[in-house]
């Protein structure tokens, strides 16, 4: 685009801070009778934020978006001037690129600018057009600033200096209103009040956590040991035999009446088979004798035993029908006995099929691999009830503190790796354990002397997988103060765990890197 040219322009010069430049100042001074000023007097002072208005004369070119290239006249952080044979229209908006030599390289700085003035030279053969930069990216603005400052310091900008982070300065003395130079006192930076506020807040939080920790450790009642427990159901073998395969493991859930496993009792199965064979044998004898009697025979062949002994063959004898009828009654009695024996053996065999008595969680299960043989009453599985109010916390409290604990008293439970306490109520205080066994509490801990068992019902249901987890319990007589202290202590512990995890993460990464380095060296 070439619409930035114009035919006529009014002559104007670039100004500094609303004042006319040094070329027009002597003329106005002669007209008004004032003494002409020396060069440089117009710049009374210079601050860092004013350097963008200081123009430097250096070699550079300006390439318009239509490809036209102009020679640069001067350059500043806020604008530039070019030399052109044709006048530029005031107010024309352009997009161009500043081409600046930096050692052996050429810097290209794309900008958007607007023409502020266009002045013809004395000969009238060319014009000087001044532009103000209206749009430039932050990165290119920083590059232009460093180029201008390098020129102000008398150095030639190069790529190596830009990459090294060199930022030359051009210090100048400020002048007073009388023309005498005087050092300007540096302004003292404001005090960082935010730091002091944050420091005092940190001290306050630390003191609050320390007070809560002291109150929690010295004023609240702490039991000797506490753990999450639940009612336990032990599944034992009804008789000796081989444990059949099952796929149950600790942590599996089972429904009520679901089959758990079975025990194969070979001796029981053999007795059942023999009992059924004896019953069938007696039934056949009774049937044969009754047929012979009904046929009207004078002599009836009769077996001398209702049950074969030791696998020997049974001998037969000939008797009268009256004697045969009496023996039928004996065989029927033996058959009835065998029926009862079969029923009893089948009942015993049905007990070898083990089913779940409740909706429970498997806490432990005996492995059934390689045909595991078990004896009668040997433990096969351990189930725990996970119903409502089944999962509780059991704590062992010393006898000296029992007087300060009452039913329905409030307590606080802290699970490992949690960020807040769980409120609970005391259900019962007993000198011995409950008759119903509970899972999750080691038996050797119960053997401790001078302690009482306290059951706590948490107000928030505990997860079933937490059974057997040791917990931290505190009993309080002042719920308001105890709750506040517990929450503050829990918050401090959570922050400590967070920082500890971060430190462990970095330490682990460094250790892994060191180990990998040692392995590479050894390899």
How far is it from the N-terminal to the C-terminal residue, by CA? 68 Å
CATH topology of the largest domain: Elongation Factor Tu (Ef-tu), domain 3
**Based on DSSP secondary structure assignment, what is the total number of beta strands?**
22
Classify the secondary structure makeup into a structural class.
Answer: alpha+beta
Principal-axis shape: elongated
Number of domains: 3
Report the CATH C-level class of the largest domain.
Answer: Mainly Beta
CATH-assigned homologous superfamily of the largest domain: Efflux pump adaptor protein, beta barrel domain
Q: How much of the sequence is in beta strands? A: 25-35%
What is the share of helical residues? Answer: 25-40%
| N to C succession of SSEs | HEEEEEEHHHEEEEHEEHEEEEEEEEHEEH
Tell me, rounded to a whole number, the average pLDDT: 76
Helical stretch count? 8
Low-confidence stretches: 8-13, 15-51, 173-184
Architecture (CATH level 2) name of the largest domain: Beta Barrel
Radius of gyration: 52 Å
User: How is the biggest beta sheet arranged?
Assistant: 10 strands, antiparallel
Protein name: Alginate biosynthesis protein Alg44
Main location: membrane
Subcellular location: Membrane
Region (Disordered): 1-48, 160-191
